[in-house]
Amino acid sequence: MEQDALLPAIAWLAASEEPAVRRAAQLEFLGIPWSEGSVANGRIVSSLLSGQQADGSFGVHPYRKWTGAHWRLVSLVDLGVTAADAPSLPGAADTVLEWLHSDQHRSQIRSIGGLTRRCASQEGNALYVCSRLGMAADPRVSQLARDLVRWQWPDGGWNCDVEASGRRSSFHETLPAAKGLHAYWMAGGDPAARAAAERAAELLLAHRLFKSSSTGRPIDPRWLKLRYPEFWHYGILPALLLLSRMGLTADPRAGEAAGLLRGKMLPDGRWPVEGAWWYPPGAKSQSDVTDWGRTGPNEFVTLSAVRILAAGPGLPAAGTTPPAGVARSRA
To answer: Global pTM?
Structure first.
C-alpha cells in the first residue's frame, strides 16, 4: 500500500488519547522521539494494570479469562508497555511462569501417538510477553522455548486436541506459539526458536493464512474478521502482523489476506473492529477489565493494520530489530 494512503490513520493514532497508542505511532511511523514519560496513565493501560496484588497477581488465576495476568500482559506488551513504564510487569509475569512450570500444570501435558497435545497458546503467549519484557535469559523462559520446539508437530504447528489424527495442527494454538518463539529469537538469537517459528509460518502460508487446502474456501469465516484483542483466537490480522515482523509478507501466499486487510480500510483511512471475543467490564461471562471498542473505527485494529502495511512487502514491521549479528528471516 502506498504510504500516503496510511497517513490519515497514522495522524489519528498519533493524536490518540491513549499515550501507548500515541507513542507507538510517533516512534514507529513518524520517527518522533517520545518525550512524555510513562504511558501507564492512559485509560486502557491503567485499566490493565489495575488491581495488581503485592504478589504480582491480579487476585485471580493467571489464566482466568480475561482478567488474569496472562491476558493482561499480552495486551500490555502488544501496546509496547515496558517494565520502565510499569515496574510491576515482571512480577505479573512471574505469576504466569510459576503457573506454567507448576507440577499441576505440567502433569496435564499428554503425548498421544507420539505427538504432544498442548494448548501451546499458553506457553506461546507467555514466551512472547517475557521476551518482550527483557526476561528471555530467565531459565523458566528458556524452558518455555525448548518445550515449544520439542512439542511442535510435523506440519509445523501445535494442537491440544487429544482426538486429532496428527495430520493437521490447530491454527489457534500455532499462531501464539510462533509469535512467542519469534520474539524469543529476536531477544537472544536462539536458532532453534527461529527455525520453529519459520516452520509454523510456512504452515500458515501454505493455507494462504485462511484457506482449506482441499476446498480453497475459508476454513472459518470468523478468521477474516478484524478483532482485538485476539487472546488465543486465530485471524488474518494477527497472522499478518506476525508475518510482517518476520519479514515474510512479500511471500505471494500472503497476498490475498493482505488484500483483504487493505480492502477493509474505511473511506476515512481507518480500520473498523468487526466484533469481539470479550464482553465489557462487569458482564457476567468472560468480561475484560477494559473496553476496547466493539463497533466502528478502532485504534487497536488500526494500529495493527498500519504496522503491517507501513512496513511494505518483505520488510519487517516497525520496531522489530533482530539480535546483533543475526540475519533476518527471508521468504
So the answer is: 0.93
